[in-house]
Amino acid sequence: MTLSGIICPLLTPFESDGRIARDLWVAHAKSVLDQGAHYLSPFGTTGEALSMTIAERVEAVEWLIASGIPAARLMPGTGMCALGDTTVLTAHAVQSGCAAAMVLPSFFYGATGEAGQARYFSDLIEAVGDDRLRMILYHIPQNSGVPVPPSLVALLAGRFPETVVAYKDSAGQWDNTAAVIAAAPSVAVFPGSETFLVQGLATGAAGCISATVNLNAAGIRAVYDGVREGRDMTEEDAQMKRIRLAVQQAGLIGGMKALLAHRSGDKRWLNLRAPHLDATLAQGLALEAALA
């Protein structure tokens, strides 16, 4: 299976007591799909995944599927520090019929280097023990402290060609993205920002997995479709990048939640999990003004 398209790392709304707001979560997921996202990736960095328990993440994925969203359009983040925890979440994604699981490297013992991470991913695949598993390697070293370099991608794709099928590059460095495309041509490479969408599509990338798909799925999808069809998307690309920059400057998670609270009138969007600070309506107003 070759993965491609526009993928949304889904924001997670919370009630005032910290529980995931099920109704808001499901409604937002359906809205993003309706606006053009090909897939949803709940519980990535944007979804505050590492501030939540395994049980919460399992249950919330099941809520999406129970609401009628096809599991085949879900790519949940499953990476935890402990191999056993990652195995539980990854096996659940596979058994639920999800299209793929997006997996961080083990992110505490960074000194073990590439050999240690190769063992971690290999042991994970063997522990899940299911031929249906499709894995997206998740490179975000500015958060995890541990890279997933091109050489490791090539090693794992060679060792598990039917399983290690994609790579998300959230480091924001095009040279690394290009190096992974060259080192592992069988792997679908997704820049972690639409800033690199047009450049990526021209050089072999598969699309993008971007936080701002939460707000601009239609615009990003239009650029993706236009480039794939050979149309000149210069103006649309520039507008898409302007939106991305404004959201980045507002703070990706808090800024987007604040804007959604402002637009919807639902103040539950202002709630973030510790250690993040809650968003404010003033942030939403400021971002709305910047976008206008």
Q: What does the model show?
A:
With 292 residues, this protein is α/β, with parallel strands linked by helices. The chain has one domain (5-231): Aldolase class I (TIM Barrel, Alpha-Beta Barrel), CATH 3.20.20.70. The protein has 12 helices and 7 strands. A 4-stranded parallel beta sheet has the order 3-4-5-6. The protein has a 3-stranded parallel beta sheet with strand order 2-1-7. Strand 5, helix 7 and strand 6 (188-191) form a beta-alpha-beta unit. Helix 6 runs parallel beside helix 7 (174-183), helix 10 (234-250) crosses helix 11 and helix 11 packs across helix 12 (281-291). The chain is globular, with a radius of gyration of 18 Å. The protein starts with a strand and ends with a helix. The relative contact order is 0.13.
Molecular shape? globular
Rounded mean pLDDT is 97
Number of domain modules: 1
The number of E-state strands comes to 7
CATH architecture: Alpha-Beta Barrel
Strand composition percent:
5-15%
Mind telling me the C-alpha Rg?
A: 18 Å
Summarize the main sheet: 4 strands, parallel
CATH class wording: Alpha Beta
CATH superfamily label: Aldolase class I
Spatial ordering of strands, largest sheet: 3-4-5-6
Distance between the termini: 40 Å
